[in-house]
């Protein structure tokens, strides 16, 4: 797990011009902790930024967009994400993800198992995916999990997605 995660974190930190480390010298968690201290950003905030950055990576974005036709569909299939991640990186320690909906229409995401920080990473990923789908929502993290309050699922135009990377818009 360390090699895949370390390379992704190293690229993120390089792209964000935050911190430079040599691959393999520090664990992924230590890399983020050092970068947070160096940048003056709280670790959770930096980890959320990493989640949003991951969505910008084309291969990861395609894997995520394949999970749903709109943001709500994406959320409803979020519990499948650990298995999808294992398809491309079987050595990543991915936690279990569970969803629930409250009577007032809020979607709750809970993360169990896996290394610390996954809730922050997932919150950043969810924010970026909501933007990608053109959905206006409020995403907050708390002790109960990640709360998603969707205000407008068609707030903006969604980014175009085709199943085939060779497909061209008509």
UniProtKB/TrEMBL annotation:
Instruction: Please spell out the taxonomic lineage of the organism that makes this protein.
Output: Bacteria, Pseudomonadati, Pseudomonadota, Alphaproteobacteria, Rhodobacterales
Source organism per UniProt: Paracoccus fontiphilus
- Pfam families from the xrefs? HNOB
Lineage, top-rank taxon, reads Bacteria
> Where in the numbering of this chain does the Heme NO-binding domain appear?
30-135
Q: What is this protein called?
A: Heme NO-binding domain-containing protein
**Family matches, as InterPro entries:** H-NOX_domain_sf, Heme_NO-bd, NO_sig/Golgi_transp_ligand-bd
